[in-house]
Design a protein that fits this description.
- With 371 residues, the protein is α/β, with parallel strands linked by helices.
- The protein folds into two domains: 228 residues, 3-Layer(aba) Sandwich (Aspartate Aminotransferase, domain 2), CATH 3.40.640; 120 residues, Alpha-Beta Complex (Aspartate Aminotransferase, domain 1).
- Helix content is 39%, strand content 13%.
- Strands 1-9-8-5-4-2-3 form a seven-stranded mixed sheet, with helices on both faces. It has a three-stranded antiparallel sheet with strand order 10-11-12, covered by helices on one side.
- Helix 1 packs antiparallel against helix 9, helix 2 packs parallel to helix 9 and helix 10 crosses helix 12.
- The longest helix is centred in the last third of the chain and has 32 residues.
- The protein starts with 10 loop residues before the first helix and ends with a helix.
- The relative contact order is 0.17.
Length: 371
């Protein structure tokens, strides 16, 4: 089976984990500090590591002061984790439409949904692309909104010659098992906002004030204070050890993802029934490779045929306004509803070979022509 996605690990990650196990300090300590330092150097500004990308988003919203009664603008076409992170604070995610060319937030639609309760806007960097990010920041400045970037797909991507995470308000990344780099599970918050950073460092450790400093010294806080709600969201040394080695390998992992995505483009360009994204892979490090099927094609039959040929596929994602918790029949999301039945994700991860990509394309074309 040619897998849709997978963790791509080398012996160096395994040896790093064994080093943590041998040392017997598995919680948050030296490796987490080293990983944060390495990420801070990578982005050119401070990073705070947490247990998941969802935790990064949740903490970012919470420490930015977003809570009960507030509203957050976000596209419906994203994984439910983004919405759960908002509603976990007591705030309400306001579903917005997407630009049909980028699958990123349609800022004009978002502006139509603005109310006095709106406190933040979330650009979701779909498939590693970032859309019209300048327009989003201009919109946020005009209306006094925080910008919390959901950059789970965009580690290593660039916008106007700047690395995502190196500029702007707040960016949140995911390091789960199949992301552009992985720490097994994990994520980080990146920002220049020192107040937000300090609050996030405490909040990831159950709100125990200044506990991060002690953990990095291999100590525990025994006499402490807690003044705000916190969570058990800290990263472990095991996760950080994997992440450190993955970060060292990132140039290789990124180059492979870009090369495979470009090969897909070459193989599938001008194929009847398929529309491709126009990503510039000099700037985009793709997390997933998504195509748009021609309207009227039966996506599930195509997926079934590919599965029979040993090719896994996916759907990124079921729109959140179709989920019971976030359903709102009053919302008109024309582009999202038109796009959703047509999107299909093809296998993409650094362990794939060019031969496998060509096989996937061959079988996809056969499945479309026979449907």
């Amino acid at each position: 089976m040619i897998r849709l996605s997978k963790s791509c690990l080398s012996d160096t990650e395994k040896q790093a984990v064994m080093g943590v196990l041998d040392r017997g300090f598995l919680g948050m300590g030296t490796e987490v500090q080293q990983f944060e330092d390495a990420l801070t150097k990578f982005f050119g500004r401070p990073a705070v590591c947490v247990s998941t990308g969802t935790a990064a988003l949740h903490l970012a919203f919470q420490v930015a002061g977003i809570g009960t009664g507030d509203e957050v603008l976000i596209q419906s076409l994203t994984y439910v984790a983004s919405f759960q992170a908002i509603s976990a604070t007591g705030a309400k995610p306001i579903v917005c439409d997407v630009n049909p060319e980028t699958f990123c937030l349609d800022i004009k639609d978002a502006e139509d949904r603005l109310t006095p309760r709106t406190k933040a806007v979330v650009p979701v960097h779909y498939a590693g692309g970032v859309g019209a990010l300048n327009d989003i920041y201009a919109f946020a400045e005009k209306h006094g909104l925080r910008v919390i970037e959901d950059a789970a797909h965009a580690f290593g991507s660039r916008y106007k010659d700047k690395r995502i995470g190196s500029f702007g308000d707040v960016a949140c990344f995911s390091f789960d098992g199949i992301k552009n780099i992985t720490s097994g599970e994990g994520g980080c918050i990146v920002t220049d906002d020192q107040v937000l950073l300090d609050k996030a460092r405490d909040a990831r450790l159950l709100g125990v004030e200044k506990d991060t400093d002690n953990r990095f010294l291999g100590k525990r806080s025994w006499d402490f204070d807690v003044t705000a709600q916190g969570w058990r969201y800290h990263m472990s040394n095991i996760m950080a050890a994997i992440g450190l080695e993955q970060l060292k390998r990132f140039p290789e992992l990124s180059a492979k993802r870009k090369s495979l995505a470009k090969l897909f483009d070459t193989q599938l360009s001008n194929v009847p029934g398929i529309e491709l994204f126009s990503h510039n892979y000099d700037n985009v490090t793709p997390h997933i490779y998504v195509i748009k099927l021609q309207s009227g094609l039966n996506r599930e039959k195509i997926r079934e045929k590919l599965e029979q040929c040993g090719v896994q596929t996916g759907i990124h994602y079921k729109p959140n306004h179709h989920l019971s918790l976030y359903q709102d029949a009053s919302k008109n999301l024309h582009e999202t509803d038109e796009i959703y039945p047509r999107i299909l994700s093809l296998p993409l991860h650094p362990d794939l070979s060019k031969k496998e990509i060509k096989y996937v394309c061959e079988k996809l074309i056969e499945a479309i022509s026979g449907s």
